[in-house]
Amino acid sequence: MTKKLEKSYDYVLIGHSLATLAFAHRLQARGESFCIIDSQQVSNSCMKEIPSLETSVYTKVPFVPFTKQVDEELNSSVLDLTGNYQKVEGTPLTFEKGDFKSFLGFGDKKIDAQDEVQRYCEPESLIFDGQPETLWQTLESRCLESIFLDQQVTDILEEDGHVQAVILNGKTKVQATHFVFFEHFSFLFEQVGQKTKSIASKVAKIRWWSSAALILHHDHKPAAAELNHCYLLMGSKEQACIGMFTQIQGQTISRWESFFPGELTQDSETVGTVVKEIKKQIQRAFSEENRPTEHIVIHSYAYGDLSHLPIQDGKVSDFNNLYICSPTFTGTNGWLSEVLSAWHLPLQDSEKTSKTEKVPPIEVAGPSTPC
Prior knowledge:
By secondary structure, the chain is of the alpha+beta class. The chain has helices at 18-30, 68-74, 114-118, 132-141, 185-193, 197-203, 268-285, 335-344; strands at 8-14, 34-37, 47-50, 55-58, 64-65, 81-82, 85-89, 93-96, 99-102, 124-128, 147-148, 153-159, 162-168, 172-181, 208-218, 230-234, 240-248, 251-261, 293-304, 311-312, 315-316, 322-324, 362-363, 369-370. It has one domain: FAD/NAD(P)-binding domain, CATH 3.50.50.
């Protein structure tokens, strides 16, 4: 039976990401109704089908920097993850003058989105006994009937600080008690900025960034490559790429990510330039005789310094039912930051729920792999 969008929900979630699925996990535990909306103008930005592996892989670098905040989160009773993890040395390796060495800082060099890249530069990282692919599949399987792709939010209807509905593809109206944006933030604030001048002035100060990911399926692990370690490669241009070699189903893949100005540009020339520079740096550091299979993904998640935005505990000021959920607010990077951002977004009490939220643990299971 073909699933159909209802006219009204408790929550409308915009964006199909790991954070969205983790938040939906909380809503299910409370008995709240919801739908997940995604335009999917490009291939799913968080997971990518790799035909040569006959499976989907998490497209971002599967790296969790260890920070004091992450340590506190994992030892709290708020976030419940099943599975063990260990702390390992995590300082990124860089390639300079024909040799690999520990990355010690940017020095006088200026690069695009330096603050975003800096998030990966922690001296320690975490390895879980599970993987983001397994987590994604587990969470998504529980809410497949609530996911609607090819649905572009084209307008936001509001009155007196209360969002009443969103318009999808210019025609379908969907109402809800609460609306949460997990991506497409510049579109959101462009819309609400037209209605609220104080918001518009603050949004103008934000510099948005997107990221291009290059996934490589290697015939053999490059001799110089170290599995499960983070690499930070920089060329002569103002661009750096982060990467990691891992094994999935006994096959070696590497995932690389670089940042460029703008939110999810469809400019093929810009994307091509970014990807070309990533490939150049990889070939310089890890020369391979056989060309690996390539898969390119443009992430729709908008990076950037969101501190200028008028947001308190995820709620957009001047609106009583509009929220954003961004890993940027967690102060770290990697798939765990997406889960953390979903866990920190406050849920509102309703007639369906009690004030004590009891959520089943998120299962991070599967074969040992770096996360």
